[in-house]
Amino acid sequence: MGKNYVDIENDRGETLRYRKHINGRGLVAHGAKVHPDARVESGAYIEPGARIAAGAHIAKGAWVEPGAQVGPGAIIDANAQIGPNAVIGSHAHIGVRSHIGAEALIPDGAIIRDDESIADGARVKTDRRGFLLAA
After folding, report:
1. pLDDT at 14
2. Does residue 7 surpass a pLDDT of 60?
3. pLDDT tens digit string along 77-97?
4. How do residues 19-42 score in pLDDT, each as one tens digit?
5. Contact by Cβ (8 Å): 53, 71
6. Taking the model in full, what pTM does it have?
7. Are the beta carbons of 114 and 97 closer than 8 angstroms?
8. Which of 17, 19, 36, 127 has the greatest CB tally within 10 Å of its CB?
9. Under 8 Å CB-to-CB from 129, ≥6 apart: which residues?
10. Cα(114)–Cα(76) distance, rounded to whole angstroms?
11. Which candidate, 25, 95, 37, 54, places its Cα nearest to that of 46?
C-alpha cells in the first residue's frame, strides 16, 4: 500500500506535507480544509489555509493558493490559479488557464472564460447570465 501523502519543498526551503484527497487524489496541504464531497483531481494543489466547499471541482493542474475560498458547486478548470485569499462564489466557473488575483471576489454563478486574468483585489461584476462585464 503506497503512502497517502507527499512532502514538497517550497521556494523558501520549507517542507510542506500534502495529503491525497479521497475524491480525485489531488494534493491538499496540511491546514487546508476540503469537503469530502469536493473533487480535487490528481495534479491539482490546495495550499495551507484554503477552503474548498462541498460539490466544488478542482481540475488537474489547478492551484488554489493560501487562504483562498472556493464555494459550493464551483468549478476551477485545468491549470487555473486562484490567488491568495481570493473568494470564488458558489457555482462560479473559472476557465482553463485563468488567473484570479489575490483577494479578488468572484460572485456566485459567475463565468470567467478561458485565459482570463482578474486583477488583485478586483470585485467582479457579471450580467444576469453570469458572464463577466467589461470594465
Report:
1. 86
2. yes
3. 999 999 999 999 999 999 999
4. 999 999 999 999 999 999 999 999
5. yes
6. 0.90
7. yes
8. 19
9. 111
10. 11
11. 25
The CA distance from 26 to 28, in Å, is: 7
Gyration radius from the chain CA atoms:
14
Supply the pLDDT for residue 62. 98
Give the number of C-alpha atoms closer than 13 A to the C-alpha of residue 103, restricted to the C-beta side: 2
* Cell representation of residue 86: 481570493
**Cα 42 from Cα 62, distance rounded (Å):** 10
In single-letter form, the type of residue at position 7 comes to D
Return d(Cα 102, Cα 118) in angstroms, integer: 9
Picking from 124, 119, 66, the residue whose alpha carbon sits closest to that of residue 93 is 124
d(CA 2, CA 22): 14
